[in-house]
Amino acid sequence: QVHLVESGGGLVQPGGSLRLSCAASGRIFSIPAMGWYRQAPGKTREWVAAISSNGHTNYADSVKGRFTISRDNAKNTVYLQMNSLKPEDTAVYYCNRIGGSSWGQGTQVTVSS
Prior knowledge:
- This protein is mostly beta strands.
- The protein has strands at 2-7, 10-12, 18-26, 34-39, 46-51, 57-59, 67-72, 77-82, 91-97, 107-111.
- Strands 2-10-9-4-5-6 form a six-stranded mixed sheet, with no helix packed on it. A four-stranded antiparallel sheet has the order 1-3-8-7, with no helix packed on it.
- The mean pLDDT is 95.
């Protein structure tokens, strides 16, 4: 019922920054906990960050201190600010509600010099 579209990915140098956006549209009946996930080549999808409806956040150890998840409920948008990027952050990044089952196209993040 809810369509999520990720954007903001691109090519960035190690140590650089990028901000991803996840815009929701369609039939929205709640303000659920949302998360960012990523999948690198040859790896399974992994959870990166989560934010509750009231703004509480949690992060995977691999990104803690470097990434910040936020949301603007009025805009139905979730963000992921990524700083101090490393080559190992290279992946397709997806957003979804926590416990969501369907996945969109994601947005490619490539960290390379």
